[in-house]
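Subject: for your reference before the review

Hello V.,

The reviewers asked for a structural picture of the protein, and I figured it would be easier to keep everything in one thread rather than splitting it across files. Below is the amino acid sequence we used in the manuscript, unchanged from the supplementary table.
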Amino acid sequence: MRVLITGGAGFIGSNLARALAFAGHEVVVADNLSMHHSTALLGDTLARLAFFHCDIRMSEDLDALPEGPYDRVYHLAASFANARSLAEPLLDVRTNAEGTLRTLAFARRVGCGLFVYAASSSSYGAAPLPLREDGPLLPNTPYAMTKRLGESYVEASGLPFVSLRLFNVYGPGDPPGLYRNAIPNMMRALDERGALDLLGEDATRDFTYVDDVVDVMVEAHRAEGRILNVGTGRETQVGGLARQILALFGAGEERLRILPPRAWDTVVRRVADVTALRSLFPKACETPIDVGLRKTAAWLHEAGYLSRGPA
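And here is what came back from the structure prediction:
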């Protein structure tokens, strides 16, 4: 199989590239390296694929990629994070909306057997639970809005497609940093300061291990023509998650400080309805969060982001 992965040097993209390349597929990665400024996350996978520095906002960059046809185009490139989108909304419009349109145009021109779009559970906003694929969408940040707009563009493109609404993906390959995810940032805060701050205790999320997400992406053809939640269907309280991280590193609850939630973050509860997912992938997304957290902590230590690994 010949595949193109936009955003293939990022967190989820590098994990997907590794799985496909080591399975013997021909992989082309397109990434502008805006998040990590290097191909380090690809590691030894880099020797098994073709990498192109490419900005999906620039048609000329896309046109410089190898000609098709591609059996699959995985579109993961995006301007990421709700908080960042509030600070830089135009970046999200140019990347998540216009960039998706340009990627779709490229895929149509060169040939694409299946266009796999990495959609976001953020598009549900504060919709009532359970969060079903056919339920209401109430996006409340530029990131959520533009990711939903991207879904609409994909559906209207005329290409064979699947849109995967990803729920709070975590795991190896996800470094800490500004506008990055909660789990690596909590672990680094505990490592550097000996304590971690929790912005609101009552919120819940559906934390989904990256290898489980990649397994669904590799078999995305099973969901052709559909929008599909990719999550565990298990609701995890963020306060409980923070306490699990403390225990993982042998720290007591006195290291936890509860702060008010961010004013813009009005989504209190989020959990996927996985009825459709399990009908197509009966064993999908089953990694227990304690197992995933330990693997995440071990990777962060091995990659140099933490001074020590889990206890």
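For the response letter, the relevant points are probably these. Residues 95 and 249 are 38 Å apart (CA to CA). The mean pLDDT is 96.

Happy to draft the paragraph if you're swamped.

O.
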